[in-house]
Protein: CAD11 protein
Organism: Irena cyanogastra
Amino acid sequence: PKMKEDHCLHAALLCLGVLCYSHGLTTERLNHSRPSLHGHHEKGKEGQVLHRSKRGWVWNQFFVIEEYTGPDPVLVGRLHSDIDSGDGNIKYILSGEGAGIIFVIDDKSGNIHATKTLDREERAQYTLTAQAVDRNTNRPLEPPSEFIVKVQDINDNPPEFLHENYHANVPERSNVGTSVIQVTASDADDPTYGNSAKLVYSILEGQPYFSVEAQTGIIRTALPNMDREAKEEYHVVIQAKDMGGHMGGLSGTTKVTITLTDVNDNPPKFPQSVYQMSVSEAAVPGEEVGRVKAKDPDIGENGLVAYSIIDGDGMDMFEITTDYETQEGVVKLKKTLDYETKKSYSLKVEAANVHIDPKFISNGPFKDTVTVKIAVEDADEPPVFLKPSYIFEVQENAASGTVVGKVHAKDPDAANSAIRYSIDRHTDLERYFVINAEDGNIKTIKALDREEMAWHNISVFAVEVHKQHQEAKVPVAIKVVDVNDNAPKFAAAYEAFVCENARSNQQFITISADDKDDSANGPRFIFSLPPEIIHNPNFTLRDNR
């Protein structure tokens, strides 16, 4: 009976509010960790005797629930030595982490109390040292013994997401189940105890477009063929709930803004089948005639459109370029137009996407065509001479009123206005010529002398009768044709010398003459001796023409 009494361990572990599970666990731990009061001998292997040191402490790992808010201090547990006979001579001393501040011990009974509310998330356990001493002499009666007070978790922390707001992108028309983004929440409660930190994700807003994986927080698309052009942005609310998502668990939420990014799933489309344009015949090549625009609801490079002329009777007269800033096709004039020749043109214009996504090729063709009709407008044009220049001839010394030639101009406009002619007097200061204002006949008004001026270069104006500002100008060159109206003249007064006894047929002088007329009038000169000396036997003349 004495040995049985000696081995009875008196220990009390009182943890207020601890579940039976904890109590059972504590009991199990007590049963496995209680030391014996009195040492005893065990026969070891090979006959050796092992001495187990005597120990009188009864202690264990203590637990105290966090966030206790009762009126009295929490009894954590009781330390008791089996050498304590209850006469009050033993004094219990507590030291270590939080001793005297958080944890206090009744030095007589060994009861340990927690005087402050504990928070496991701030500190999960405390290491303390207990010792029994003689109350009168403070002499240690037992070696110091270390024990741990663990703060037991309760579900007092809701899950918190890393970010209050998330932003994510996913291509439009993505397949169902396409991963969009993963949101992650954390729970400060003890993940090793119960389900306080076991999180389950769910979607509160954003269905039926998106779903979330309960265990991972991965958001995925839930509907096929979501169209950016119909709706571009979605607001999703995700909840993380602890206690495995069961009733009573704490929860936290986050907002996720999901934007559908564009893909080229729409072809360009002209809003009308025919465009009507007009251009003046006076327009110069390179001038803009008009613009066409095919609408493509896609954006960025997916909405880029290039324009081209693929058919029509105006392919040679017009061209089209692409204005990539406005996404318009710019029709421009390529060649000069003539209203009187052709009054209208037709073009077939094609608009095609620059970048095509092979995934959506079945949505094609990614192009459209439109007809462009261009009307040529009649411009008020100046008169036009039938020739760019005129060359006439008239004989010198011709009588006044001799017709030199005729110029002719006409009004190219449909009105075909009457024309009046005049000579630019700056080009005929001597007034040799006159022109008939109505028919354009040019005549002389004084005799012309080729030897004074062989060519006359004048300019003739043509103006419309009712529109004096519309005028044209043409150069007229008049050649004065030579007639033989000038006698030859000797070049100089000649004097010659000849030696006596000169040989017969010896040349001793050459005589030349000048004539103002044109050499085209036949041989230049005929030389001969005058009749009075033609029979002189001393001299002869040889005509060299």
Q: What stands out?
A: The two ends are 182 Å apart (CA to CA). The chain has five domains: 61-152, 160-261, 274-377, 384-481, 487-544. Residues 274-377 form a domain with the Immunoglobulin-like fold (CATH 2.60.40.60). DSSP finds two helices and 38 strands in the chain.
